[in-house]
Each structure stands twice: as C-alpha cells, then as structure tokens.
UniProtKB/TrEMBL annotation:
Keywords: Hydrolase. GO terms for molecular function: hydrolase activity, acting on carbon-nitrogen (but not peptide) bonds, in linear amides. InterPro entries: C-N_Hydrolase, C-N_Hydrolase_sf, Nit1/2_C-N_Hydrolase, UPF0012_CS. Residues 3-251 form the CN hydrolase domain. CDD domains: nit (cd07572). Pfam families: CN_hydrolase. Signal peptide: none annotated. Belongs to the carbon-nitrogen hydrolase superfamily. NIT1/NIT2 family. This is Carbon-nitrogen hydrolase family protein. The lineage of its organism: Bacteria, Pseudomonadati, Pseudomonadota, Alphaproteobacteria, Hyphomicrobiales.
Length: 285
C-alpha cells in the first residue's frame, strides 16, 4: 500500500485563532497535493513560553479551536489529520501537551500526551522546565489505520528510543515526532535522531516542525522531515517559516528493511531492565 503523507511546517504565533487559520490553509494545500495523512507540528495552537500568557488562551478539549478546526478539516478533505500537539487545559488545573489524530469522518481516533518533559539548560542561556507547566503522558500509543500502523511521540520524546521500540514491537510502521526543537539542539542532533529512530526500528519517521523566530521570542529549528525505514531522508524543509513536505510512503518498505536487518526480531528484550555488571579495575597512569 502506498499513500501520500505531508508534514506541515509552521511558525505558530501566541494566538490560537491565527494558528488555526494558518493550519487550515496549509492542510488544504497539502490535501490538494494528494496527501491523505497530514501532520502538523508540536504546539500548533500556540508557541508561548510565558505561562500566564499560555493560561489565558488555554481551553479544554471540547472548546479548543485547533481541535475543532482539525476535526472539521479532516472531514471536509477526507484525510487523516494528526495535530502534532496543542496545549489542553485539564480538569485538575494542569496542562497536557497533546497530539490528536482525526479520521476522514472527522472523528477523533486517539490522543497522545508528550511523555518526556524538556527540563534542560542549554549553554546559550536557554532554560526549559516543561515539567513545571505540563502533566507528562504515561502511555505509548499506536493507531491501527487502514493504510498503516502509526506510533506517536512528541519532540523531546525522540531522544528516548525505548518509547519508539515499544511502539514498533506493537506493530508501528510509521513513527511520528512532531516538534518545536530549539535551534541549537536541532542543528546538532535533529536529523541524526530522526534517522536513528527510523533505522533501529525499520520504520518511517514523519516529523512536522515549528520553524523560525516566533512572536514569543523563541527560535525553532524547522527542517520538517520524512525518513524511510532504511534511514534515507525522503523530503525535508528549510529552517525558517512555513513549508509543506510531501512523500509517497510505500508501507512495504518497512517489511523490506526489517527483512534485511531483523533487529526487532533479534532484540533481547531482557536488556531493557538489565542491571549492568560493574567491572572495576585498571590503574591510574
Ligand atoms: O523542545 C523539545 O522538547 C526538545 C528539544 O528541543 C530537544 O530535545 O533538543
């Protein structure tokens, strides 16, 4: 089965209404190119590092404009629309960094909450404490769609290979890591991480990214990308501003890659929980 996939690159503002309109324009364009699966970046709804600012525009799932617009678009265009993430107000006063997948009937198929919180101090002075803002997700998710099985991740999750291995073992043929990577870490690691997740799991990786200088002052790396199961970059965007990245996904390439390098089959799962033996020795020279 071959289908066309699109990753939408955005430079989201702090205003969810504006971002919903930009998303709709880009998703329509991607569907016009024949894409039946379209992915948007992490934080499609608002790139906003100021917590009070984010709280002011936050809605619960039922009232969120990105969620509503995405469901309507999926139905109107008869596509699978994956909102890479948007911030959702939870009943307990916390926030989820949540991805949504809608089917061609406009119905929500599943959600996924970002599991790994980006609590990092970079040497350019950027300091991130996502755990102070978001409630981390606790479950890996795989969607069983008519054309492929899709595994979920969001941004920083891409640095935790065991999440994607769990999803690949559960049958995922396409791994997804919509992102808002920092420019500094993106320059050093982005492409390598995406290609590594593809190669070690024999799976496609599709990553829609935020790109450019945002209204809140943040700078994101962009380079939305689609990688095949052999680690080849099929399509990639630049580092700034909106773009649509398209590729034909031949799902049979997953079986072909896994037949050549059967690392899912050859894995020894006990190693995940193994306590390494500590061998001390040597002399100081
Ligand atoms: O923003 C994030 O979640 C992740 C990020 O930039 C990185 O891992 O370098």
């Amino acid at each position: 089965m071959t289908f066309k996939a699109a990753a939408i690159q955005m430079c989201s503002s702090v205003d969810p209404e504006k971002n919903a309109a930009a998303m709709a324009r880009l998703v329509r364009e991607a569907a016009g190119h024949g894409a039946i699966y379209v992915q948007t970046p992490e934080m499609t709804g608002a790139v906003q590092k100021d917590r009070p600012g984010l709280m002011a525009v936050l809605r619960d799932e039922a009232n969120d404009i990105i969620v509503r617009t995405a469901g309507d678009l999926a139905r109107e265009l008869s596509i699978y629309l994956h909102v890479g993430s948007t911030a959702i107000a939870l009943a307990d006063g916390k926030i989820a960094n949540r991805a949504f997948l809608f089917g061609p009937d406009g119905r929500k198929i599943c959600t996924y909450d970002k599991i790994h919180m980006f609590d990092v101090d970079l040497d350019n002075g950027e300091s991130w404490r996502e755990s102070a803002v978001y409630r981390p997700g606790e479950k890996a998710t795989v969607a069983d769609l008519p054309f492929a099985k899709l595994g979920f991740g969001i941004c920083y999750d891409v640095r935790f290979p065991q999440l994607f291995r769990t999803e690949a073992v559960a049958g995922a043929q396409i791994l997804t890591t919509p992102a808002a990577f920092t420019r500094q870490t993106g320059e050093a690691h982005w492409e390598i991480l995406l290609r590594a997740r593809a190669i070690e799991n024999g799976a496609f990786v599709i990553s829609a990214a935020q790109a450019g200088v945002h209204e809140d002052g943040r700078e994101t790396f962009g380079h939305s990308m689609i990688v095949d199961p052999w680690g080849k970059v099929l399509a990639s965007a630049g580092g700034s501003g909106e773009a649509i990245v398209l590729a034909d996904i031949d799902v049979a390439a997953v079986g072909a890659a896994r037949a050549k390098i059967p690392n899912l089959k050859n894995a020894r799962d006990f190693e995940l929980n193994m306590q390494p033996e500590l061998a001390k020795g040597g002399v100081t020279v």
